[in-house]
């Protein structure tokens, strides 16, 4: 009996996904470049599963699959994907499907889609979120690429993915070519923002309010039964309680240097490319980069001594303020993320369903939360919604949280505690709600030194003017354009 799907790559994500697929009644063929891992997997994690079939070369692997073949690559992104595609091609026939389930850059997925289309092969770039646990028991899956492939893989993907409390699958077709990996990229960018915001809340409670880890664990646990309910808040409460072998809190023994794999950076770079102010995610990326400067930070701490700041306010009230600031900032993060998705849909000609995307993130993924159900509701109520900030549910929260939000940021500044994500979110909000910004001066300066022209408040929009500011610059303008 031939296999329903083949999976290449037996690292932990690949193994767990294979077991998940097999649990749902599908026969799986498996292959790994280091073939000793095939036998190890069959004799250990997959022991006794007769419908998981090991293979030991690419030709045997392809020959074991039902046609049209469905092949999922669970390997490192980059050149390795291209290398395996080339190895597979001699053994494939038109109509077969190659699925990239890694964290590939969406531009590479676009390129691969068109390259394989010319050869009659359907390419699908699939974002998968949920980590090892999600892969095993139900991840969020974001497929995009050649639409002809969707009917061939839909049953498998919607069987193995997470489901909402209402039973809806956290997997649906996202869009053409690189859309699936793009949505996963934005997911990861929002994840960067969420994690930074939570770490700043921790910093304020620990560094300013001097709360114990047990107290903070209780607070995060309580917050997890409010609008802030999410996987990241849940695991933060658990981390606060985790003890090392000596009985001391493990968190305080972990070096304060945050790593990254690039997807947050991709989100920030792309936001600059398509002119969307994703300030909070970008600030979260920079916060990780700055954290890596440990030796310089230690030196600067001694070089720039700060006076001790004693908090004299009501602790419980300020904890409530932090909660409000966290919720308001989280709304800004998601508002920016969906602004980016809307701009990307126009830029890359994708038909993205923003409510559907929120639903795909509702369960299974790292940023899963009840909050996402409200985002789905917002776009279901108004598919043309310009910004989440205009939705009644979110605007009401922002309005009620403003005083607390400002208090938290100003108190942190006065205490010398770094809160880049909280501050960035508040600054974005204040800029976004400003009918008039000082950018008229910037445009005047540009016209003064570079004859870049400007628009006027007393003339139709789109009509440009130039002033000979010095009397010696002449009347010829440089025009306005973007590089």
What does this 3D model show about the protein?
The protein is α/β, with parallel strands linked by helices and 483 residues long. It folds into 3 domains: 173 residues, Rossmann fold (3-Layer(aba) Sandwich); 249 residues, N-(1-d-carboxylethyl)-l-norvaline Dehydrogenase, domain 2 (Orthogonal Bundle), CATH 1.10.1040; 47 residues, 6-Phosphogluconate Dehydrogenase, domain 3 (Single alpha-helices involved in coiled-coils or other helix-helix interfaces, Up-down Bundle). Helices cover 52% and strands 7% of the residues. The chain has 19 helices and 8 strands. It has an 8-stranded mixed β-sheet, with helices on both faces. Helix 4 links the parallel strand 4 and strand 5. Helix 1 runs parallel beside helix 6 and helix 12 runs antiparallel to helix 18. The longest helix has 33 residues. The termini are far apart. The relative contact order is 0.09. The mean pLDDT is 94.
């Amino acid at each position: 009996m031939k296999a329903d799907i083949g999976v290449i790559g037996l690292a932990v994500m690949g193994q767990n996904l294979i077991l998940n697929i097999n649990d749902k009644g599908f026969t799986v063929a498996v292959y790994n470049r280091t073939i000793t891992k095939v036998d190890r997997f069959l004799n250990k994690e997959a022991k006794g599963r007769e419908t998981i079939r090991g293979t030991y070369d690419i030709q045997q692997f392809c020959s074991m699959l039902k046609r049209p073949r469905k092949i999922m690559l669970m390997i490192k992104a980059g050149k390795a994907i291209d290398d395996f595609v080339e190895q597979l091609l001699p053994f494939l026939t038109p109509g077969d499907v190659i699925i990239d389930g890694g964290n590939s850059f969406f531009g590479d997925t676009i390129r691969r889609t068109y390259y394989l289309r010319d050869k009659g092969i359907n390419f699908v770039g699939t974002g998968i979120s949920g980590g090892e646990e999600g892969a095993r028991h139900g991840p969020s899956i974001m497929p995009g690429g050649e639409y002809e492939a969707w009917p061939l893989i839909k049953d498998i993907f919607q069987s193995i993915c997470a489901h909402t409390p209402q039973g809806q699958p956290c997997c649906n077709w996202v869009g053409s070519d690189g859309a699936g990996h793009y949505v996963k990229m934005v997911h990861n960018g929002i994840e960067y923002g969420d994690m930074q915001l939570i770490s700043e809340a921790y910093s304020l409670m620990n560094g300013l309010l001097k709360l114990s880890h047990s107290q903070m664990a209780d607070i995060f646990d309580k917050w997890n039964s409010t609008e802030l309910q999410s996987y990241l808040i849940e695991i933060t409460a658990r981390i606060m309680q985790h003890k090392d072998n000596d009985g001391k809190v493990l968190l305080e023994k972990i070096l304060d240097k945050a790593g990254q794999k690039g997807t947050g950076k991709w989100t920030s770079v792309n936001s600059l490319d398509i002119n969307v102010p994703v300030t909070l995610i970008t600030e979260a990326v920079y916060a990780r980069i700055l954290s890596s400067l440990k030796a310089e930070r230690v030196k600067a701490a001694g070089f720039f001594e700060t006076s001790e700041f004693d908090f004299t306010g009501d602790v419980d009230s300020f904890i409530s303020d932090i909660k409000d600031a966290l919720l308001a900032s989280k709304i800004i993060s998601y508002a920016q993320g969906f602004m980016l998705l809307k701009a990307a849909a126009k830029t890359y000609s994708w038909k993205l369903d923003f409510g559907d995307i929120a639903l795909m993130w509702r369960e299974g993924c790292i940023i899963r939360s009840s909050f996402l159900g409200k985002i789905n509701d917002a776009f279901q109520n108004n598919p043309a919604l310009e910004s989440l900030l205009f939705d009644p549910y979110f605007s009401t929260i922002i309005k009620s949280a403003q005083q607390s939000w400002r208090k938290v940021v100003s108190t942190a500044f006065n205490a010398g505690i770094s809160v880049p994500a909280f501050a960035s979110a508040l600054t974005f909000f204040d800029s976004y709600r400003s009918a008039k910004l000082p950018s008229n001066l910037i445009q005047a300066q540009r016209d003064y030194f570079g004859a870049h022209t400007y628009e006027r408040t007393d003339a139709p929009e789109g009509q440009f003017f130039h002033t000979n500011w010095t009397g010696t610059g002449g009347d010829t303008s440089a025009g306005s354009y973007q590089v």
